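Design review, sub-item: ligand-bound model
Attendees: FS, YL, KQ
YL presented the inputs for the zinc ion complex:
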Amino acid sequence: MAAAMLMMAGIAMAQGMMPIPVDEAVRMGKLENGLTYYVRHNDYPEHRVNFYIAQRVGSIQEEESQRGLAHFLEHMAFNGTENFPGNGVIDYTRNLGVEFGRDLNAYTSTDQTVYNINDVPSTRQSALDSCLLILRDWSCGLLLEDEEIDKERGVIHEEWRLRRSAQQRMLENCLETLFPGSKYGQRMPIGLMSVVDGFKYNELRDYYHKWYRPDNQAIVVVGDIDVDYMENLIKTYFSPIVLQPNAAQVVDEPVPDNEEAIIVVEKDKEQQFSIIQLMFKHDPSTREEKQDVMYMVEDYAMDLISEMYDQRLREKAQEADCPFLQAGTYNGNYLGMSANKEAFVFYCLPKPDMANEALQAVMVEALRASMHGFTAGEYERAKAEYLSRLEKTYNERNKITNEVYGRSLIANYLEGEPIPSIEQEYQIVNMLAPNIPVDLINQVLPELIPQNEHNMVVVNFNQEAEGKVYPTVEGFRSAINAARASDIEAYVDNTKNEPLMTVMPTPGTIVSEKKGDKFDYTELTLSNGAKVILKKTDLKENEIRMEAESKGGSSLYGKEDYANLEMFDAVVGMSGLGAFDNTELTKALAGKQANVDLGMSTCYETLSGKSTVKDLETLFQLTYLTMTDIHKDEKAFNNLMNQLSTMLKNKHLDPNSAFSDSVSVTLSNHNWREKPFDESDIANVNLDRIMAIAKERTANAADFTFYFVGNFDEQLIREYLCQYIASLPANASRENYNNVQEYALGKVLNHFTRKMETPKAMSYMFWYNLTEPYSMRGQILASMAGQLLDKVYLQKIREDAGAAYSASAFGMQRRTGDLNQTMVIGVVPMTPEKSDLALSIMREEAANLAKTVDAASLTDIKEVMIKDYNTSIKENSYWMNVLTEWVGRGNDDHTGYEEMVNSIKPEDVSAFMRNVVLAAGNNVEVVMLPEQ
Ligand SMILES: [Zn+2]
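KQ shared the predicted structure:
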């Protein structure tokens, strides 16, 4: 790969080799003990700071007797450190409004372990100092106490159980075959439960001291900080750490090449459908190569190749006789596990019993491009798309988040990824792209898709069932050979060379305009009666959001349309517009950042869309066409129905979907509208009927309110409104919705057992009131009640009882149609042996919350809510929501929010829990246990 790219770039760039510049805003350095650090100032979001520590070690460093310890250690970082004993890390950061699991988290993979503390308020310097101290403790000051280790064994065991899906089981089965002669074959980070349950305390401490060392670590701090101050503080905290002499070195674990294809076929009873991956392994660029501009060329080429393949495969899948339902490509670390080997991957969902044919068809497409190349037209579209995405990022360069910067600095440390500024990247790519013709891209393909089995890997997962015939290694090999032997012709690119709209409608006018009573918006009435709400913001330089809604929705239709209502959004979404079918439309929109979706909820039909400043007119054209001329696309519809039938055929085999189906059926009191969509419903989906419903729902623009929020030009948007919205058909009728929603009343228990491959237990509990009117205060109280219960569950069920890996709860108040819902919901995937205990804690603690509320917990929760509020008011989506609630439903969810949150006292929450949530007496419990 690299060789061809070298040549390519040599031709492309007259100047020859050129190093990729490093973003000047990044302060980086290395301490004498080998610790690397990165500090960057960033103002988005305002007054927030992210802290990370990255270790270039993971499960690959484990010995056979230590399998699972790298990940175990990661958990122990939250169970006692020198300066933050016990739950100190979690408790301290919670005080800052930092939520464990969301803002405070970590992950362990085969060759890296990364911890983060995100969104720390920068208002108190001492808080920032303390967060850096937590990083120091993580780097070398974990307590690793006996009793804390013992408490965590159960938690990890439950995490293993929770993650043990059909795919996980199959991957573990074949991992050694996929990594022959490599430790990667035996180092799944979750490890062995025999090790987790029984390792000796010192083994964990040994791993910690051996591998967590300054020369394997990087500190990253990004946000609203004084860079000099932070750099000095890093030096103060981390320089005293002594690097032990003769420390063990991190050595890359190789992933050997294979000359003969590796083919694995696996099956599992809970797998729902068959999937095939065809991979071509190749070496990644070295750290040195990644510092050269060529690497950006390679990255660009790979992105475009994948994009062009995807487009062809999508188009192919719509042909009636295509043996696969869906297919696509990506390039990445081999099996997502090893940074030492990459793979270009084709994945596909074969039609039932057509695995060989599907693999052959995908291989033919792989070869078609490598033999005949991509066409200039395909390349131009993919390039336009790539450049327009880059331009969008560039135009919003002041809104790059701490998280995005943080992750790229970590990737620089761990994988040597370049870190140019967005200005530099934009400039380099725009200089290179015009000089890279499609021929150069095509020259790379034969190297990516070789003519022999060199580095080829085929992985196939199947649903296991009695009497079923599975694909075989020989069958797959023949399919590959048949593809090679077949007569492959060049691709023909069918496109429509015409604008989206050829005939412009006669424009209407704006008949009235007035300032809104609050929130600084303008209300317009158009000549056809449509109402428009405009709110100009500069929250993002390059974003305009649109929503439109009208009362009615699926509530106006009866049971005979059940299947059509369920599939409405999906079918409309894959239709074409105007003269363009789905495939032609995708091609026509290449390089444009604008989209519009028509959807239907119970009480409303809605349009929602988004565009850049430049593509605003396209957004308006898409809106006009969606409301007047949806293109019925039979091919795309049939493909969608075939996909659904394969996906749904074995849905019941997955315990999780069986459980969530039970939840919605029980909660809705078996109302047909909430019935889970099954395979047997597919026959009742009718394309013509859906097109007719769509026409009905969009026939009257005067019944819609259109909302625009973002950085639009005031003059231009008025021209577009007249041209494309005021010209929409309309009439004088006004619709309302029917109140069709239903909930189970009283106490309803649905406890059931089922047979499972890995025994799991799951419980949902709902407490709710359907009469309390919606208000901002009610919404705040319900949310607080849910968060309080969440904290208690985590402490009592996970930490104290070891009865679950995760235990959570949340609360909300909302209004759908005229129905008010105030709810508190507990969600706990339990340890089967301890399910009685977990269930009784769930019930007791909900009842306890109605008696007393912990004042300190409530203070922490307020901190989080106010912090979240201050972050979200910087988003256009927040204001869109405020406006649709206010103009559309008369709810003001914004004014006085902060004061309201601060005014709530502990006794207010317990009174709300007692008098509203529990007093209504509605309580649904759905519990699934493994069959013995
Ligand atoms: Zn974990």
